[in-house]
Amino acid sequence: MSEAVLTLDGQEVEKGRSLWQDAWTRLSKNKAAMLGVFLLAAFVILAIIAPWIAPFSYDAQDLNIGPQAPSSAHWFGTDILGRDLYTRILYGGRISLMVGFLATFVSLVIGVLWGTIAGFVGGRTDSIMMRIVDIMYAIPFILLVILLMVFVNTRDNTNNLLLLFVAIGATEWLTMARIVRGQVMGIRKQEFIEACYSMGISNRQIIFKHLIPNVLGPIIVYATLTVPTVMLTEAFLSFLGLGVQPPMSSWGLLISSGVENMEEYPWLLIYPGLTFSITLFSLNFLGDGLRDALDPKASKD
Amino acid sequence: MLEVKDLKTYFYTRNGVYRAVEGISFSVKRGEVLGIVGESGSGKSVSQYSLLRLIPSPPGKIVGGTATFDGVDLLNCSQAELQKIRGKKISMIFQDPMTCLNPYMTIGDQIMEPLFIHDKLSKEEAVKKAKNALEEVGIQDALNRLKSYPHELSGGMRQRVMIAMALITEPELLIADEPTTALDVTVQAQILDLIKALQKKKNTGVIFITHDLGVIAGIADRVMVMYAGQVVETAPTAQLFEKPSHPYTRALLSSSPALHARGERLKTISGLPPDLSKEIKGCAFADRCPERNDRNCGSENPKLVELYKDHFVANCEACIHHSPSNTSKA
Amino acid sequence: MSMSFLEVKNIKTHFPIQKGSFFSKTVATVKAVDGVSLTLEQGEVLGLVGESGCGKSTLGRSILRLIEPTSGEIFFDGKEISSMDPKALRKERPQFQMIFQDPYASLDPRMTVFDTLSEPLIFHKIVGKDEVENEVQRLMKMVGLAPRFIHKYPHEFSGGQRQRIAIARALALRPKLIIADEPVSALDVSIQSQILNLLMDLRNELNLTMIFISHDLGVVKYLCDRVAVMYLGKIIELASSDELYANPLHPYTKALLSAIPLPDPQAEKKRERIILQGDPPSPINPPPGCSFAPRCPKKSSALCETKMPQLIEIKKDHWVTDCPCNVPA
Prior knowledge:
With 301 residues, chain A is mainly alpha-helical. Chain A contains 11 helices and 2 strands, in the order ββααααααααααα. Chain A has helices spanning 19-29, 31-48, 50-53, 85-121, 123-138, 141-151, 157-188, 191-198, 203-240, 251-260, 267-294; strands spanning 5-8, 11-14. Chain A has a two-stranded antiparallel ribbon. Chain A starts with a strand and ends in a 7-residue tail after the last helix. The relative contact order of chain A is 0.15. Chain B is α/β, with parallel strands linked by helices and 330 residues long. Chain B is built from 12 helices and 12 strands. The radius of gyration of chain B is 21 Å and the shape is globular.
């Protein structure tokens, strides 16, 4: 159990193994999860360097070629307007992944703050805060997002994207808030928190140094599993025509046009579909792996 | 009635093979109360769960030994034969009465369950028997109580219900795993009295597991002391307390605060129990033994020998030559 | 008369049971601590014994205001603690600390020994920043932990070692009063004696004042100067340790003492046990009059059920409730 040796005024000191290290060891033994990590990392890197490696520009049309099956010039083929599918998938990945991670991040921040305050303060504040969450849960989310997108729709793609982040993030935080609140309430009753009170430690320090690090586990798991949900939502919205607008592409848009032309030009659906599915699988495997790795019960054996 | 020889139970974990029970042998006569004393990690609970094959099977495995009960080898018999014995001939009561009763069933249903399975009684007969069983364990208003749920009862009452459940099929052997540890001391006294009375009345054999020497002194006919998965000493109760021969037994007895004057420093056992996932060479207690004299302690694991009549102890220098009958009492 | 080091006057801690989540209504009250007064001199060790539901843990926490008492006063070293505002109270907290029962739950699993012990030192500026590491090592040595474990995490230690860390943390703020809530109950017997020796040594070295809460009467007799027996939120007997065990007066105390199993088979056979009927009661809406009456083997008059007994000093320094059974006519 003891690891490498450091020194402390000339004496030898044993290094400890934190619970995070234990969790990482467990995670690294989970083959599916590590595969997920690898694939995800690969896709993210590709998405980031897309502008440098894409053979064509994403909106370069070539109406003479039209839709073409995959060839050595166009690895994934071309779409109706002659645009290179491989390039569009790369650029589409940038949008989809960005929306996925950023919207999740937004929901994380709001959810953690809301849940921590509700769970820590308790009492009437907690009741009010959670009733608000309950009410918002009752509103059909898709309707909300659609309304938002329709009423604030602009031709400007950047604003559109921003709106997309905000709209999706603002609806995903609800479950995060509930999870965080439950975790916080559980930890708050533990004796080590009581010990902090008895030492006169301030509430602020208790929340940031003790509470949040101990609820981080489930939060990370849930966040990892929120990303695919968000990406699917974006895909759905784009499918409906409410998300990203052409000539910009996202995996959702690509799948949508792929479906339209499924019978004649199947590659238009297969490649974006495959890419999207692999990403979702990777995230899910990773999320499952994290859940097992961070399970406190598992760390006791 | 029950004869266990060389029982070995190991747990195969990620961190290595955990040798929970490393070759123990003991026997229980009809109507006898055998007390098993040890601390956590001594293997006392695991050994008894092994008898009824209640060890979770990965990661645990009964690696060796036999346990003959009325002619049947419990460790190697078929599942069908085991089912007939469990709950009917051998019953068990557990430590935490709160988690051992099904919260979704009334206690009546739970008490009658073994009757339907083993004795195949009709509903009326079962209800009558259940009512009698509750009255026997001292629960008033038994007929109505049958309809209560576990959460409506106190800890002491739940433990009584468990005892009723265990004794309702008139088993020949009762295994009690720390049944009073989670209870208040006055309730503990009630439950111990109850177990003693029922045991005498029905002549049931009892294996009573505990870490509390005081409880053992009051209830057991014979005592078996376990340490690190092995038996270190076994003797009739009075004999064990009068002539404790193994250094661990002596240390346990002498570290009880009840036997010290106020302000006197307690005798302790230094160090920690050994890590059972590592193979132990020689005597498992050697590192902590206050009477160690290094002759053979590190090389061979001392076997049990009969020091006095019916009193077995590990065959090491400390036990045999430094036992109270040979030297002046410490 | 000068004030004692710790004076607790008529503390009551009641918890309302509420129905309804938003507009809640109190339907019953759990009277966990129902009027307890005691005094403690500096350097004394007071034992608080009782069974589950008696309120001893709640009393310990109420004295430290970890749970706010519903009414009553607490005076510590001359200062009134009970009505201090939270900010001022926080400054006083270093002087009275608690050791908790469960060594697994009372340490933050994500912090090393160094983090755990240095936190109070840094927060209350007990020593300068450059002295913190030395001070942590000193604390570790004081409780018998090898300093080379300073960067290890709680799950890498055994129960007994974790409890030592918890004790070191309690001592970090150099308190004058320590309340120990069943500090050895969750430990193995052979480890218990190690920790009890440690507590005794520390008490002697540092002249600590302690309140030792336990259900284990053997341990309490060994460690404490005076012992208070609690039942259903009240103290029913209070005397010096030797006196209580030699001459218990209250029937509950007698039953409690007779129920302790002794590691001596001859004594066990001979002893006459007083077995109480029924179970320890719940502190929700206790019966009027003497709360012990329903189980009292010596219940004599109807008075037991109506009159609330008071603690009186029946002999020098031996207090007991004034019911007819205890007080000879």
